[in-house]
Design goal:
The structure holds 2 protein chains of 2 kinds. Chain A is α+β, with helices and mostly antiparallel strands. Chain A is built from 17 helices and 12 strands. Chain A has a 5-stranded antiparallel beta sheet, with helices on both faces. In chain A, strands 7-6-10-9-8 form a 5-stranded antiparallel beta sheet. Chain A has a two-stranded antiparallel ribbon with strand order 11-12. Chain A is rod-shaped, with a radius of gyration of 57 Å. In chain B, the strands form 5 sheets. A 5-stranded mixed beta sheet of chain B has the order 6-12-11-8-9, with no helix packed on it. In chain B, strands 1, 14, 17 and 18 form a 4-stranded mixed beta sheet that branches. In chain B, strands 13-3-15-16 form a 4-stranded antiparallel beta sheet. Classes of the chains: A alpha+beta, B mainly beta. At the A-B interface, helix 1, helix 4, strand 3 and helix 8 of A face helix 2, helix 3 and strand 2 of B.
Chain lengths: 524, 249
């Protein structure tokens, strides 16, 4: 299960890293969004300012058509000649000329109102300003933009006549080198239509305001224009905005619900009246990494390389499933098969060598359990025979008799002691146990342990051991000579290695009511 | 108030013509006239327009001169029929004058500068199609208050001094009222600078020009003794000290 555990740890680390990355991405997204929003608002504000300036310049150039009209120029000259009273006869021709020229102008460069003003500032004729109809003393001469036009300048201004007007003026000359006969003044109302046109051309969401109220608004598609009404509640706070007061442009202000605005004061007389425009952008912060999934559109999802992601998912899935198969399903199945074999009697024990890890231990424990149950019920233990259980106590040192007297009789006393202590019933009752190697032919010279053939002797020992077990009431079923011999070989080899002897002799005796085999090391 | 109602019934076209009659003191058949002229007014500069042309005041996004207009005209000299007030100052305090109509419209008042004796009632009438909100800086008797189209407000100076009228809804609108106890007569010049003052009582007078709330030019003494007087020389109200305005931005 090591691989699986390693995989789980790795998977946990990867998931943690991904969550950490998502958290960072959320923070980066929000910060980048806020920065982009601020930059976007500044850009929008600049663009709108440029648009207003360019629009004023474009419209002022349209005033040339009025200034070059002979009827307008001549009648303005006549009007200027009279200081006290304006000749009413001059109004109609001037108004007619204004209308004629105005109708020929391109619609997107036309004015909402045009005024022809004489040198005294009196409005001789006008179109598009019905509020002044019937006002014979209506004049404009006090406004700086009109005064500038009457003194030879072209300029723009922003006036508040109840509504916000972008105004441009230029002089009207009859003869070059003379005092201008008057001036023509064009005015464009900053209404919703103007704001919409501005928004379409600049892409900015814009609202105009004056005297603490929004007067016009326009926004691109997808931006709710009504949300710009929120600026009304924020206009009062602009008094405390140093940038707005000093530089005419506020810092980025958040109005809630992701709406941010930047205010810019309009140039002209309206500057002092607090008139201006606000550009707005909406930016919703990600409240949590999960919000990525809600915000993502089809383009975002397409950019996520779904094939690669699918391959990674499938790959990780395969690795995980493979590891669990290798480390769980497969060994469990094998274990199950072995258990089934054991249960079916096809095997008398589990084979731990077939397993690994926990299953090997389980197999060993199953064997252990079976042995203990068998032992408790008087059955034959199938586990590996304990050396001491099989051979009895091993001498800590080689028995002197075995070494000193190679003759088998010399070893009898030592070997017979246990039997004497626990005399066996027939057929050996009353007899001394026969030394295992006594009847065996002696090995030639210094032959190794294996030199003399122990088979005959071991068969004798086996016979004695079986007989003794029967006498002790032990089960001998399944106890074959081959198993007995294997045990003897193992023990003999262990004793040889332990004591450096060349010969080991076995003898049968009874220990604790059970048959046992005792080994006696010796020299050939 | 009766005078105010009477003014209210006047047609706007006649207001300016009647202005000079109203603001002048009652004249007897023997009123003397002081004929004269002013010069150098083209060197004066309307303070409102001067401030407006300063780029620092953000009064425009572009301002360019028209080269075909001679440089001498490209200066923001005042419209003297409204802005330059000629005053005959007596050696003695004069009584309050009759109610005087001040037209408010077109981005300014008419007249822009006026010199009156304290206690003279001034009637401000809105001649614009939109409202104004006039006030006098530092005067609790003339706080910002809306005046709708055709509406009027009244005010009188209680003591000598210079009062500046402003409009919260039209920053370029500024008017100067000089309350001077010795005002015997006032007049406004023509575009060419010619003027005449009708003085009711004979005596010694000083002819003084006022512009934008300040005296301009030297006072010219005249002695009236039941006969018109023509000033021997124009009153110089301004000196050339500036070049032509080239615009900017």
């Amino acid at each position: 299960m090591l691989l699986s555990r390693f995989f789980y740890v790795l998977l946990a680390l990867v998931v943690g890293a991904l969550l950490f990355t998502l958290e960072m991405a959320q923070s980066m997204y929000n910060r980048a969004g806020e920065r982009a929003r601020g930059e976007g608002l500044s850009s929008d504000s600049q663009v709108v300012s440029w648009y207003l300036k360019d629009d004023a310049r474009t419209r002022s150039s349209q005033l040339i058509k009025f200034a070059l009209d002979g009827d307008i120029a001549r009648n303005l000259q006549k009007a200027s000649a009279s200081e006290s009273v304006l000749d009413e006869k001059l109004r109609d021709p001037v108004t007619a000329a204004l209308k004629k020229v105005h109708q020929e102008m391109p619609p997107d460069e036309a004015f909402d109102a045009v005024f022809a003003v004489d040198q005294h500032g009196r409005v001789v004729g006008q179109v598009g300003y019905p509020q002044a109809n019937g006002m014979s003393d209506f004049e404009l001469g006090g406004y700086p933009v009109v005064a500038d036009a009457l003194h030879g300048f072209i300029r723009d201004d922003t006036l508040v006549w109840g509504r916000i007007y972008r105004v441009v003026g230029r002089p009207v000359e009859v003869e070059a080198g003379q005092l201008p006969a008057g001036a023509v003044i064009g005015a464009r109302v900053l209404d919703d239509q103007f704001a919409r046109e501005l928004s379409e051309r600049t892409g900015a969401a814009v609202a105009f305001y004056v005297n603490g109220s929004r007067t016009a608004a326009g926004a691109p598609e997808g931006f709710q224009t009504s949300s710009l009404d929120q600026i009304v509640s924020d206009l009062g706070a602009l008094r405390g905005d140093a940038d707005y007061q000093d530089k005419g442009r506020s810092s980025v202000r958040e109005l809630g619900e992701g709406l941010s605005v930047q205010y810019t004061r309009l140039p002209g007389e309206a500057y002092e009246l607090g008139a201006g425009f606000a550009v707005a952008r909406q930016f919703q912060k990600l409240p949590s990494p999960q919000a990525f999934y809600n915000r993502a559109d089809d383009k975002d999802k397409a950019a996520a390389h779904p094939i690669i992601l699918l391959a990674v998912v499938v790959g990780l899935l395969a690795i995980g499933l493979g590891m669990t198969y290798l480390e769980h399903t497969r060994p469990l199945r094998i274990f199950h098969q072995e258990v089934a074999r054991l249960a079916g009697g096809q095997s008398d024990q589990m084979h731990p060598s077939k397993f690994a890890g926990a299953f090997r231990k389980l197999a060993a424990e199953v064997n252990e359990g079976i042995d203990k149950v068998a032992a408790a019920t008087g059955g034959r233990s199938r586990r590996a025979t304990n050396l001491e259980d099989v051979l009895g106590e091993l001498p800590a040192q080689p028995m002197m008799a075995a070494f000193a007297v190679p003759d088998v009789t010399a070893g009898i006393p030592a070997a017979s002691a246990p039997l004497a202590a626990s005399p066996l019933p027939s057929p050996v009752i009353g007899q001394r146990p026969v030394a295992p190697g006594r009847n065996l032919p002696k090995p030639p010279g210094q032959a190794a342990v294996s030199a003399p053939d122990p088979e005959a002797e071991w068969r004798v020992i086996y016979s004695q051991f079986v007989a003794t077990k029967q006498q002790c009431g032990e089960v001998i079923e399944g106890f074959t000579y081959e198993k007995f011999r294997t045990t003897l070989v193992k023990n003999r080899d262990a004793i040889v290695a332990r004591h450096g002897v060349t010969q080991v002799k076995f003898s049968v005796y009874v220990k604790d009511g059970k048959a046992a085999v005792k080994a006696s090391p010796g020299r050939a | 108030m009766a005078q105010t109602r009477r003014l209210g019934r006047l047609q706007p076209a006649h207001l300016l013509a009647l202005l000079s009659l109203v603001i002048l003191p009652p004249t007897a058949a023997w009123a003397d006239k002081v004929w004269g002229s002013v010069s150098g007014f083209e060197h004066l500069e309307n303070p409102v327009w001067k401030e407006a042309k300063d780029p620092k005041n953000k009064g425009y996004s572009f301002r360019e001169m028209v080269p075909t207009v001679p440089a001498k005209y490209r200066k923001l000299y005042p419209h003297i029929p409204r802005e330059l007030c000629l005053v005959a100052l007596s050696t003695q305090d004069q009584p309050a004058q009759p109610a005087t109509l001040i037209r408010v419209g077109g981005g300014r008042t008419t007249p822009v500068t006026i010199v009156v004796t304290p206690g003279t009632k001034l009637v401000f009438q809105n001649t614009d199609p939109f409202k104004h909100r006039l006030y006098i800086k530092g005067d609790s008797n003339f706080q910002p208050n809306d005046t709708d189209r055709g509406g009027k407000r009244e005010w009188s100076a209680t003591k000598p001094g210079v009062y500046e009228v402003r409009d919260e809804l039209a920053p370029s609108l500024r008017m100067w009222i000089i309350a001077e106890p010795k005002v015997a007569a006032i007049s406004y010049p023509s575009m060419k600078g010619d003027f005449n003052l009708s003085v009711a009582q004979p005596g010694d007078y000083q002819i003084q020009a006022y512009f934008a709330g300040q005296r301009v030019g030297e006072a010219v003494p005249v002695k009236l003794d039941r006969g018109d007087v023509r000033l021997p020389a124009p009153i110089v109200v301004g000196k050339p000290d500036q070049g032509a305005d080239k615009g900017g931005k």
